[in-house]
TrEMBL record:
Keywords: ATP-binding, Ligase, Nucleotide-binding. Residues 31-382 form the AMP-dependent synthetase/ligase domain. The keyword Ligase applies. Pfam families: AMP-binding, AMP-binding_C. It comes from the Bacteria. This is AMP-dependent synthetase. InterPro entries: AMP-bd_C (IPR025110), AMP-bd_C_sf (IPR045851), AMP-binding_CS (IPR020845), AMP-dep_synth/lig_dom (IPR000873), ANL_N_sf (IPR042099), Mitochondrial_ACSM (IPR051087). Gene3D superfamilies: 3.30.300.30, N-terminal domain of ligase-like (3.40.50.12780). Belongs to the ATP-dependent AMP-binding enzyme family. PANTHER family: ACYL-COA SYNTHETASE MEDIUM CHAIN FAMILY MEMBER 3 (PTHR43605:SF10), ACYL-COENZYME A SYNTHETASE (PTHR43605). The lineage of its organism: Bacteria, Pseudomonadati, Pseudomonadota, Alphaproteobacteria, Rhodobacterales. Residues 432-509 form the AMP-binding enzyme C-terminal domain.
């Protein structure tokens, strides 16, 4: 635990990784508290109106672990978890880790092809589901020869307490978690993460939430626990620290319901994906009582950060990472001010740099890279040695993101294939998108390069506007002038298209490659 340092120098001087050889995430986040403070509340499950203590969570996870063992699950076996936010979802991951098996979170809104791809690739023998989602498996079960069982743990709730279950002895390097990437730049790949991954996340989570745990801390996120942002940036770090987590699935995000949930349940700490912040801002939502707000996935920009200071009453701390190695860069308003345009500094204990085309560290623009020694670093891509090899350059993991490292701060420019080359300038889309979001007419914006005979590419913006505004040539020109007067003459969008919706991953990231394809098709016609 980082504690509450007085300065960044103090933080660096005091920090040492403590990764024990023998380590099990399930024991860490559940059994240690069940032994020392059994009545402490672990999960406030709003779906069923229950407050689940650590003692109850241990019973739930032990019961499920015994059931999984009876189904033939053992060390190194992948087990799908097709569930959203609930106490049984937490118990499912904990049970799997206690067995030395590998939990594989699956998003409840996945349909046949997405589920089939992940379950086939992993060869999972068992899926732990909830009643609402179990039907999604039935139509594809015959196409999954390895899948033998679908377990709905709610049916086990009345079983007697188990007294004889003993977790497997696992090491920090043993595989524990298989998370498939969202597939923004190609087919999803399974990132295989070790038991130590939680310990690797802790400094970044603690920094982005201004040094938790503190008195009265309580977590919630609208992000589904099937994704790394919900599972390892909120749920498991909170349980590690004995902090209660509110569980509530929102079928569709609603700003007023979000505000009500936070204020009525005394939530103090939240992870808001950027898309959620944009919705809250567009609906002029103000939320009281929060101590910390963290956000990651896309750069926020000064407009959203300034809104957060007013509407949320605090500084939103951005963080950066990837499924393969998460929580490696973070802002931390409690001990340093992050310059405009920067995501923050390398998290304590992680080495982050920018590499040139030859793989050498550079102070110029290059590819953001993370050193292999980060404890949150994946073990490998599942069944994909070529992709694993391609992900690294010597001792550095390549992120595929362009950036600049300046005075210790990381400036994110965009995905390598998102950067626009126009008339000799290299332009990152994020700054332009964030600038457009500052205009009162704009709800969402995405920027790509459109092929152009004279400039190579021009900046093309796709914009979703507020219903109070009309999409016309006057607004198009107004948006162009808005960017040109605030950024630079070479960065303003020379074309603006108004759209009903933007293509996004189910985690809320803009899929620019689809818009890039659309822009290329427009250029050909």
């Amino acid at each position: 635990m980082l504690g509450q340092p007085t300065s960044l120098d103090h933080l660096h001087a005091d920090f040492r990784w403590d990764i024990p050889h023998a380590y099990n995430m399930g024991v860490d986040v559940c059994d240690k508290w069940a032994a020392t403070d059994p009545e402490r509340v672990a999960i406030i499950d709003l779906e069923c109106g229950s407050r689940i203590t650590f003692a109850q969570l241990k019973k739930m996870s032990d019961t499920l672990a015994m059931e999984l063992r009876a189904k033939g699950i053992g060390f190194g076996d992948p087990v799908g978890v097709l569930r959203s936010q609930s106490a049984w979802t937490a118990a499912a991951h904990i049970a799997i880790w206690k067995l030395g098996a590998i939990s594989m979170p699956l998003f409840g809104l996945f349909r046949a092809e997405a589920l089939k791809m992940r379950l086939s690739d992993s060869a999972a023998k068992v899926v732990v589901s909830e009643p609402d989602f179990a039907q999604n498996i039935l139509g594809i079960r015959r196409q999954l020869p390895d899948l033998a069982h679908v377990i709905i743990p709610e049916t086990m709730a009345d079983r007697p307490a188990l007294r004889n279950f003993v977790p497997e002895q696992t090491s920090a390097e043993d595989p524990a978690l298989l998370i498939y990437t969202s597939g923004t730049t190609g087919d999803p790949k399974g990132a295989l993460l070790a038991q130590r991954v939680l310990l690797g996340h802790l400094p970044g989570v603690e920094m982005s939430h201004n040094f938790l745990p503190q008195a009265s801390d309580r977590f919630w996120t609208p992000a589904d626990w099937a994704w790394i942002g919900g599972l390892l940036d909120v749920l498991m770090p909170a349980l590690h620290h004995g902090i209660s987590v509110v569980a509530k699935r929102m079928a569709k995000f609603d700003a007023q319901a979000c505000k009500q949930l936070i204020e009525e349940n005394a939530v103090r700490n939240v992870f808001f994906p950027p898309t959620v912040l944009k919705v809250l801002k567009s609906e002029q939502t103000q939320i009281k009582g929060l101590r910390s707000v963290a956000s990651g996935g896309e750069p926020l920009g000064e407009e959203l950060l300034a809104w957060g200071r007013t509407a949320l009453g605090l500084e939103i701390n951005e963080f950066y990472g990837q499924t393969e190695c998460n929580m490696t860069v973070s802002a931390c308003g409690d001990i340093y001010e992050t310059p405009a345009g920067s995501t923050g500094r390398a998290v304590i204990g992680h080495r982050v740099s920018v590499l040139d085309a030859d793989g050498n560290e550079t102070m110029e623009e290059g590819e953001i890279a993370v050193h292999r020694d980060s404890p949150s670093m994946m073990l490998k891509y599942w069944k994909n040695p070529i992709a694993t090899s391609d992900k690294y350059s010597s001792d550095w993991m390549l992120t595929g993101d362009r950036g600049v490292l300046r005075d210790g701060f990381v400036y994110f420019l965009g995905r390598d294939d998102d950067v626009i080359s126009s008339a000799g300038y290299r332009i990152g889309p994020s700054m332009i998108e964030n600038c457009l979001l500052g205009h009162p007419a704009v709800l969402m914006a995405a920027v790509v390069g459109k092929p152009d005979e004279s400039r190579g590419e021009i900046v093309k913006a796709y914009v979703k506007i507020h219903p109070d505004f009309k999409a016309n040539s006057n607004l198009e020109q107004e948006l162009k002038d808005w960017v040109r007067s605030r950024l630079a003459a070479h960065e303003y969008p020379r074309e603006v298209s108004f759209v009903e919706d933007l293509p996004m991953t189910i985690t809320g990231k803009i899929i620019r490659k689809i818009l890039k394809q659309r822009a290329c098709a427009e250029a050909e016609n």
